Amino acid sequence: xxxxxxxxxxxxxxxxxVVAEALKVLGALGDPGLALELEEVEAGAGCYQRTGEDxxxxxxxxxxxxxxxxxxxxxxxxxxxxxxxEIAPQLTLRIRLDLYLGLRPxxxxxxxxxxxxxxxxxxxxxxxxxxxxxxLYASRGAGVRVGGHVVTDTLVVTRPGAARICRAAxxxxxxxxxxxxxxxxxxxxxxxxxxxxxxxxxxxxxxEVAADYPExxxxxxxIDAMAAYLVQAPDRYDVVxxxxxxGDILSDLAAATVGGLGLAPSGDIGDHAALFQPSHxxxxxxxxxGIANPLATILSAGLMLDWLGRRESDAAAxxxxxxxxxxxxxxxxxxxxxxxxxGGDASTAxxxxxxxxxx
Length: 359
Prior knowledge:
By secondary structure, the chain is α/β, with parallel strands linked by helices. It has helices at 15-28, 45-51, 57-65, 89-96, 159-174, 197-210, 223-232, 244-256, 295-312, 315-334, 348-358; strands spanning 2-11, 34-41, 68-73, 101-107, 125-131, 144-146, 150-152, 186-191, 217-222, 239-242, 265-269, 274-278.
């Protein structure tokens, strides 16, 4: 039997609401060969307001000991650190647990009408591999401010960091079915190598890694052009790899093309640990109203099982991940129930119930 210890962090805003539905769906799997031991701990802006810490030591210890972490969302616009930035314990966990691969699946499910006019037979199904521990985000908490006139943040790219995220991207492509347009396994490096040395170096490392994967096509795109390409021809892409900040921005743009952030799951993955959460934020404007879309969090729970299954060669966990995605796809294809962000009037709980029933 696969037995896994899962750290659960609801966080702030709609985080606890959508995590509750993901736990409901995990409980509905009903597979005796899969046992999940859930341990709920706290982190986030609310925790910071009460305790002065956004990631208490006890929470960090539970996360370090867990097999995986299921995270809701954290941070509130009006709760900030002394340097003016928002509370973001999920970023701290990425660094402390070395979760260097930001896995952002972008998929247009049947029954969902996106904002793009796609040609006959065209689809959207690619993955963004975001570097999670370096890039411009490496300056978090370490930028320099000189009085009220000068502020600097430093973009950091190292050879080991660039190499491992690029290798992870090519490994992803090896196990996928290729781009929807032509079925070609393809990894696209997104950078600004025509202007900045850091991105030219990232591209150089990408090309070196690509040489080890001759069966996968390696292509390049500048970030400004890529923002247009993901709107004009999203079916051409299979795996997209990018520096931290660029990966963050592209993830939200890409989510908008497949129905919004309520359908955008993610995983922050390292060699020995992983955290799974929706790509969206805390949405304090709708928190407590029971109308948040839980599907991104439910899909993230499915990604968690898939990762555990691959790591442990556990058929039950792998099957659980596939079943959760299939159940979400089934609910979406029926057109109801849907939360307001997808044009419906259903509650968060009603959507979670529907996915559980579809299992």
